Amino acid sequence: MRRICHIVNPVVVGPESDLFHAQPITYETMRIAKRFAQKHLKGRLEIGLCATVYPEDEEMIAPGFGRVDDLKEEVCDKYEFTSKYRKLPYMREIIKNGMETQADYYIQTNVDIGLMPHFYVTVNRLIDQGYQSFIINKRIISGHYKTIDRIPEMWAEIGTQHNGYDCFVFPYWAYNGFDLGDVCMGTPWSETTLATSMINEDSSTKVFKDIHATFHIGDKRSWMQLADYRQHNTEQFAKVLRVFQRGHEQPIKHEIIEWLTKKLQFELQPHYSQDCHDVCEKTSYLF
């Protein structure tokens, strides 16, 4: 039997946050997708829904989710920002806590990523086809949905393609080679070092852009205003990528690296770290 652990980071937020409505929908779609897989795969796939939280967020752990180690660090303990957004964890601690479970494959998604009923069946099928590490891009649906009773309507809406990376699948064996830096969650560029680490361990890492398996309600991108957090994560990505590049005789060429470094070059500013400038210079062959 193949074992999968799906790790998420629930958080208490107020009604002013998009996550206030999105999280209950996300967790309900995860439970539904698990039941769907159990019915259709008949004992061939074991799915563990796992949550890692700060202790004060434990009320957001939904029924049916196992609680792994609590989060202990937050980015503002080590770094200074112009304005504190909210308590934000490191991606590396979320992944580390999820790895305490006994699984063959791990899935990490943001807490605003809803699942189609066939999500886990699709993931299992892709693994059967030989894919080890991969990313599934979400589709954007209308922003007016707010309650779990409307989930069937959300599934029925085709939505539009989105390039953002927020659903990661990777095998247990890849984790020991990961370097996730100090990228923090809940802000722009949080996906970068996980995607880059997956490529460093598995050069055949695939991005599935056209699979209708996940969705996001609306596309407000309110987090885009967090300029100093954005800069922090950008610099962490560049730092990690430079380390990985030194471990290869030739520069890492991959569509994910191309996409991320192209975005970095687009927003590069003089006050960004030297790592950022070096990465842009060394990846100019991509553009």
Summarize the helices and strands and which ones pair or pack.
Elements: E1 2-8, H1 19-41, E2 45-51, E3 66-67, H2 91-98, E4 105-109, E5 114-115, H3 119-128, E6 134-136, E7 139-141, H4 151-156, E8 160-161, E9 167-171, H5 192-201, E10 206-208, E11 214-217, H6 227-246, H7 255-267, H8 274-282
Parallel strand pairs: 1-2, 1-4, 2-3, 6-10, 7-11
Antiparallel strand pairs: 4-9, 5-11, 6-9, 7-8
Helix pairs in contact: 5-6, 6-8, 7-8
Estimate the helix proportion, in percent: 25-40%
* End-to-end distance: 44 Å
CATH architecture designation? Alpha-Beta Complex
CATH class category label: Alpha Beta
Oligomer status: single chain
Question: Could you give the order of strands across the largest sheet?
Answer: 3-2-1-4-9-6-10
Strand content: 5-15%
Total E-strand runs: 11
CATH fold description: Spore Coat Polysaccharide Biosynthesis Protein SpsA, Chain A
Summarize the structure.
The chain is an alpha/beta fold. Helix 5 packs parallel to helix 6, helix 6 packs across helix 8 and helix 7 crosses helix 8. The chain is globular and about 50 Å long.
Task: Tell me what the structure shows.
It is a single chain. The chain is built from 8 helices and 11 strands. The chain has helices at residues 19-41, 91-98, 119-128, 151-156, 192-201, 227-246, 255-267, 274-282, and strands spanning 2-8, 45-51, 66-67, 105-109, 114-115, 134-136, 139-141, 160-161, 167-171, 206-208, 214-217. Strand 1, helix 1 (19-41) and strand 2 form a beta-alpha-beta unit. It is globular and about 50 Å long. A 7-stranded mixed sheet has the order 3-2-1-4-9-6-10, sandwiched between helices. It starts with a strand and ends in a 5-residue tail after the last helix. It has 287 residues and is α/β, with parallel strands linked by helices. Helix 5 (192-201) runs parallel beside helix 6 and helix 6 crosses helix 8. It has a single domain, classed as Spore Coat Polysaccharide Biosynthesis Protein SpsA, Chain A (Alpha-Beta Complex).
